[in-house]
Fold these 3 entries.
Entry 1:
Amino acid sequence: MEIPQHVRRIYPFQSRWMEVQGHRVHYVDEGEEESKPTVVLLHGNPTWSFLYREIIPRITHKCRAVAPDYPGFGLSDKPLNERWYTLENHTRIFTEFIERLGLKKVILVVQDWGGPIGVGFAIKHPDRMAGMVIMNTWAWPEPSVFHASVLPWRMMHAPLVGAHFFLRRNILVERGLYLSTENREKLKAGAVLDGYRLPFSSPASRIGMLAFPRNIPLKPGDLNWDRMAEMKAALPTLRFPCRLLWGEKDNVFPAENAQKFQDLLPNCTSPRMIPHGRHFIQEDAPMEIAEEILALVDEGDG
């Protein structure tokens, strides 16, 4: 996929590729290769490594920064079978990706679906973890009041309605990003919105967007309920340092989620609340995020 010049100007990183379990995974890898720890930046839905374009240049003077696109997102391959898009598959692909890069000392930066994927990796591989920056996400069976409300849940799971809005109307990119970002003037700029639209130009390219919401469990018996319950139970066993940074205006994962992480994680800072931040905090507070990442990098080097 060719990246247009006006998008390339704000996303100037070299594209790299790795074949993982039959899927071509796109990622960027910037900074000093030998520096430790390595910062790995995980995106959510409906975004890709483009989400971290303003953060990567702020941290690579001190560390190596790696930002992958999950299969189904960004410039990675996009499986056409919705049933492929499970939390288990994403975590397995990500785990092999880290192993193939040979990363031994990792700081994960997670938001939205990056939370369950990253926490799932950390629980299984605590020996590879140097720390985590956690932003506007969750890692337990009942994500938030927003997800428990009737309208979004029914819309996401209704076969025809969900497909219409997510696949045909591209609602998460065209409307969701705007509603979930405080810095909306930035999104109106052609290059930024075009960067988010770029990988999702057809209904077939948006299947991962629809599958992620359908992976959210709200009651026992739902897909991933047991997996997320095990994840919640394992959070207190994670001893590496964690830092919390939260968009205070997020209605998807509100401030209560930040407090829950602090309560469950034994080596976690108090949440750093961003008054002007919404769900996609990377667009609203890239400088503050870089500060939290570099604080962990300095701690890891010490």
Entry 2:
Amino acid sequence: MVTTSDFKKAIDLINNANSWLVTSHTRPDGDAAGCMKVFCEVAKQLGKKAKPLLLSPPAQWYKNIFDAPVPVLGNDVKLEELKAESFGKFDLVIIVDTNSYVQLAEFDKWLKVSNVPVLVIDHHLIGDALGAVEIIDSAAAATGEIVFDLLKFAGWKITPEIAEALYIAISTDTGWFRFDNTNGRVMHNAAELVELGARPSVIYHKMYQNYSPSRLKLLGRMLGSLELYHDDRIALQFILRCDFDSTGATGTDTEEFVNESGRIGSVEASALFVELKDGGFRCSLRSSGKIDVRKIAAKFGGGGHRVAAGVNLKGSLKDAKKMILEELEKALSGE
């Protein structure tokens, strides 16, 4: 539970720093990108400097959240540039939507040797205590809700740009208010953000109505791979490297695809296996609420939420499929 003291410590840390590095986990989602955008906007209000840094390329619709292209570690900024301070000299690192080294890719190598104070704002249960100050609220549906609370507590102005970024954070982490983490707090926050300038129809168009032809073709390939198990209560789908090659799509085009099989009335758990360039598979897991897919992901070194989680798996598709299917069947059988 977040206390008044937690907010005061965070505000003191922010007020005492003039140059911020703002980042989040790899494979940034709407919550991560939205919260990063918020702190870039807050920095302008406070007369501070903030540099956002992504740890892997975002999907196109998340790129549009930012006013200008955000550099990606490894592509636009090298780890050596962080260490040499040629990317910038910072007196505060703000990490949103994660508190785990495993989700920070190469950035963790710099973070572990850096003396720069770290502020962590997150809503996940599992963490590595990365921050000098941490605001953790596992009851929040999205980190955006915690950031919203912080801004209101601090009395910082919530502009339409900030309201939109927070609305994206909350709406995407609740599956556009479809997941079972959608509660009264979420809906009150959403309503307040609309009053502050967020435009739901515009945001929905940006997020969900801007497919490229290659992305739609990739979706078709994935839908054709559907396999059902356990009396049609488990859905497995697959995207292989050849699917990317034949459609011209990229890895970020798979965002949200795992939710498609949830349209089947009997499906209570689903998994999407995406073949990675360097071998192995990224497995995204979803649950209708009966089982906790976070526990399954954690068993193999991944993480996430009760109804939405993910993990990277080594080996062949056959092996990855066998491991996940066995765990899903056990969970649904109540073992």
Entry 3:
Amino acid sequence: METNIFPTKSNLLQAKRSLDLAKVGFELLDKKRVIMLREMMSLMHDIQGVQEQIDVTFADAYASLQKANFTIGQSEILNITNYNIFPDDITIQFKSIMGVEIPVVNYEETPPVLNYGFAFTNSDLDDAYIKFLKVKHLTAMLAAIENSVYRLAFAIKQAQKRANALRNIVIPRLEHTVYFITGYLEEKERESFTVLKVIKSKNS
């Protein structure tokens, strides 16, 4: 392998500094990848738990809605649901994990407010409403977690690519540069020593 760097002591020092930085950079990227991977695996475990809650809650909510359809009438319930009866109580914030912004769903854990009249409704509809509201919150939470997993997976892939570039290209190239310049300077030093020895022997 050849190098275009002129073999001087200053370039040798610069190459050594760059090599040290590249090694530190590789270690940091590897640590970052491990931390993000651990966080992603934890979130993937959360996905399964939230999905199970959604399945159970949705089944219960649908059963309550079927009861309400039977006791109140489907047409009356459709009239009620034509209005926006679910509150806009979900907010999205972001937190940083190793520089990756991931969404966090927030909503107030307060008793639900039924935003419809009670003249032509009953407790079956109330029960369905409360359970579908919980499904809404859980679905938003699931979407945020899945989005977080996607963002972390992308960041892990990018970190791995940069780490591989440092390990397989940058660090070997810098190591060769250090080896090349060191060998060149040592050879010049030996030549100079030999010349001085010859001159000294001639003058003695």
